[in-house]
Design goal:
This protein is α+β, with helices and mostly antiparallel strands. It is built from 13 helices and 8 strands. The chain folds into 2 domains: 221 residues, no CATH class; 88 residues.
Amino acid sequence: MRKKLFKWHSISALVALIPMIIIAITGSILVFKVEIDTWLMPEYMSVNVETAHSRLDLNTLIKQVTTTHSDYLMGSWELFDDKYRADTAYIIKKETGDWYKLYLDQYTGELLSTPVSVTHDITDWLLSLHYTFLLDFTGTVLGSVFAIILLFLGISGIILYRQFWKKLFTLRFKAAKRIFYSDVHKFIGITSSPVLIILAITGGYFNISAVVHEVSEHIEPHPLMTKSLYSNELDFQFLMDKSKQDILGYKPTYFIFPFEPDLHITFFGEVPSDNPLTSEYASTVTYDRTTGNLMSAYDIRKAPLINVVVDTFRKLHFGYFAGLPSKIVWCVLGLSPFWLALTGLYFYWFRVRKKNRRKSYIPPRTIQHN
């Protein structure tokens, strides 16, 4: 049984070798996506205002975007009020349906950038590479498969080397290279396996959910939008303020416009919670796109346990649940598939070379003498 498990562990690792390396490297970088974006694009990502300043009326900000870029329609909006980070508006090109984004100062109304593709910035391109291998829907499917493989590798590795914990911190530096690399492989695998299993489960969920959504909701492509699907009479600032009353302690962080026929206006936000893994998008409030009437208010604190668990996937996958310390741990351990691939590849090469030597070896008694 152990030999079969080892065989499948090795085969799975070889099949997923290159994708795992890509996922590991890009994922470790993306743990610090916001910090990298702020460092590379401070003029877009950051605002510099006094503490006393308050956000402009949301209707004013939306009008600033729609009038300046009339060939686009509103898609969604990322909200910040920390006096440091700029808002991000996601807009849709009328002619193509492609998504773009731009940054704006929510305290002055100044547009900080022109619309750019959602994969224009280097970290957004890396995110697409990490999530879909730049292959759109096909890449999302492949990402789901490799997440399942990573889960299998994590679990099977623990089973295969479950006794290694007894010598967890014993690396035989003076042993043969093969033995030393074996110790390194086991050490990295055992110490990183809990995080890798978490990343496999959460990443697999995101990809599989996207696949299911595309298959079930977008069997036929929606017609391109030429005009907004919401009433021009709606007061978005009023709706955002009202959302804070519809859920006790609610703070909106993101909202979507109705960019598809069956969508309405939904605010996503955070609520005070004893659960440190509750995300900043956990609770939602939805309003009718024509009348502005409340349609639903979803409070994560009153949700079923399964919903609460699924919501934790965001912080668990991106590793920011405990601030900088957890991000560093996720960055370092998230890179472990890269090192596991290198050491595992060495083992494979060693076994192949050893097998070839056996085949080419001729015992002395079989040699013919003239």
